[in-house]
Amino acid sequence: MGKVYDGLHRISFLINEDGVIEHVFNKFKTKDHHEVVLKFLNENR
Question: How far apart are CA 2 and CA 22, in angstroms?
Answer without folding.
Answer: 39
